[in-house]
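QA checklist item 7 of 12: single-chain prediction sanity check.
[x] sequence parsed
[x] length recorded as 174
[x] structure emitted
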Amino acid sequence: SLTVAPEALVDFTAGDDCLWLFGNRDHVQTRVLIKQLETAGQHFCLIEAGATLTLNPERGTATVTPADAEQLTALIAELMQSAAFNQGRTPVCDGIIYLWGLEVPSVPNFNPELLAAQNTYSTYPLIALGQALLANSAPGRLIVATNTAQAVLGGEAPNPLAAAAWGAGRVLWY
């Protein structure tokens, strides 16, 4: 399970600025983070995977095709310009949290269909997001969340799909 210590949220909850969460509300770890952010009174926009680019400022949500660089670039531009997504004021983004990396299938569940669908949760959407953030000179720090990207306990094996997203996140950091 995901636990975010309150002190880890201090940077994000210190002001009234916004977070952009790229995740799926049906994923348990994303729901936990959303609950913690709501409890802290943090304003955020949840961007979920979808077939098209949609924006819903009233609900603080959006959808985008994860591997579509043009849609991601348009989304980031809209989020940066839209006061509706930012409580009626000039938008400032404290952070971008990439949660799609949490949705990789476990190694025993790998099959051709899941591997073909990795463009919705693995490395390419993360790279496309990094390009969209750069193209828009987006502020805020990019945080990449992964699950089983590295072995923590003896006997564990890392998940190659999660490790690839973790590696891409390291490259984007530099």
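[x] summary fact logged: The first strand starts at residue 18 and ends at 22.
[ ] second reviewer sign-off
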